[in-house]
Every structure is written in structure tokens, then in C-alpha cells.
Amino acid sequence: MLHQERGTHEEEVQEKIEYPDGKVEEVLSDGRRILTFPDGTRKEISADKRMTTISFSNGDVKKVMPDQSVIYYYADAQTTHTAYPDGLEVLQFPNNQIEKHYPNGTQEIVFPDHTVKRVYSDGLKETFFPDGTVVKIEKNGDKIVVFSDGQREIHTAQFRRREYPDGTVKTVFCNGRQETKCSTGRVQIKDEEGNLILSKK
Question: Where in the numbering of this chain does the Centromere protein J C-terminal domain appear (predicted)?
Fold first, then answer.
């Protein structure tokens, strides 16, 4: 974990500079530089100057990696935010929820129960549940649910439809009319009050 990464042994201080503003700079025998500020903030620069770690007095830690990734640990929230050079940002929460924000506007959230939700820049939303159920919500609000047993549900402003693996389709229209088409070819239509108005085989 980022907030726990600290050297277990101290290198020998080769040079120590105390500045008038209270800042102290130490150059260690392994080449690292450590700057300590009056407010308790500590900045450590690697010997090759490719990595910087800043430990703030509030417990937050910021690391700039050699590839220019920036990892920021928020101590109070116990949350880590990593920003990659390609624009990807990843947030890790203490409950094991992980959020990814892609440069193209897509967001992906992995919940602790392993449910995955994706929100695309065009407005499409997809949720993948651990039991295999998939829910897609289009920008216009249409919703498609695909269950792990092969059943599908489609919800639009005009109707709700359930499609079964055997080919049976049941539709309820917004006016209440119901239509059932069985895989055998049988068709039943009921009016909005549930009265059978057509039944043919």
C-alpha cells in the first residue's frame, strides 16, 4: 500500500542544509534527497530523480513515478487515485470498489460484489452482475435485461416484453394490452382490462 511504503533502514546523511524558511534538505549516501518542510510535509526524490514521494502532514501521500504516473493516497478517505500518462484515472476505495475513468469518457465501476457497471460517453449504460445477468440502458431510456437462464426483458416507452428461451414472447403495451406468442404458434391477445380478445393456434 502506498501510505505504508517507507524504507525500513535509514541511509547515512551525507549533507544536511537548513534553510532560513525552516526547510531542511538532506542528501543521503544512496543519492536520495529528502526535503522536510516546517509544516511536516516531507518530499523524497530518488537518486536518479525519476521518482518523487511527498508525504503530507495530514497523512496524504503523493507519488510521481518514473513513467509520470501520479499516485495520490487520501488518508482520511483511505482512497487511492492513480492518474496515468495516457489519461486513464483509477480510484480505489477502502471497500474494494474500483472506478476507472478512461480518456474517451467511458467509466467503469467494479463493486465489491464483482458487479461491473460501464457508462459510455454516448450515454449507453451496461451492468454485468455476478450471476450472469446483463442490463443495458440506452441513451433514450430503453432497457434490455438478459438473464443467465436465457430469458430477455425489453422495456421501452411503448411496451415491456419478455422473451423466453423456448421462443415464447409476452408483451405488455403501455395502454395495458397484452400479447403472448408461444413457440408453438399460439397467439393470445388481451385488452387493457385483461379480457381475452384473440386466441388462435
Answer: 12-45, 85-117, 122-155, 160-183
